[in-house]
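Q: Convert this sequence to structure tokens.
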Amino acid sequence: MSWMRGVLAVLAVCVLLLTGPAGCGSSDTGGTGEPEARDSATPVGRLLDATDEEGRRYREVDGERAPEVGIEVQPETDDSWVVRLTVRDFRFSPAGTEAEAVAGRGVAHLFLDGDLLTRLRGPEYRLAADLVPRGTHQLTVRLYADDGTVWAVDGEPVESTADITASETEPREPTEPEEMEPGETQGRSPPARTAVR
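A:
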């Protein structure tokens, strides 16, 4: 009879192992109240052999659930630039976040003409004028997981690029205001992906 109790105990353990924590009455949040806790326990995406300029591997994810990023750059009166990021299906990780890939989470790296400027944990950054020499430049933002891998779709990094043009400020002669036809507006902004100063 004691051998039957032993077999039943082994079977009970096997059932618990097969059903996992879901069979033990935990909720969809992994028992922590935070949905991302469940996500962090499962592998996210597929690591590719492709790497970025710093040797960080691409992490391929399905395009339907992949994060997206956009970039807009606006000149300021003090010759600096305000860089604003728009993200979809992505949230910025706070400092001290564990170095693991969690779906739709991480940091953004900002590059000027291919050189790393900074790592961002939020959607806005002020780019100092002395970092942007005279001429036209490319400002690129790329999304990374917390483990340092690059979020990628179809073998390409999740990134966005804007052109910015810096010119030397020259004193201008005062001019008379232009006459405008009814319905015209003054001060139209440049296209969203291009900023000129």
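Residues 2-19 form the longest helix (18 residues).
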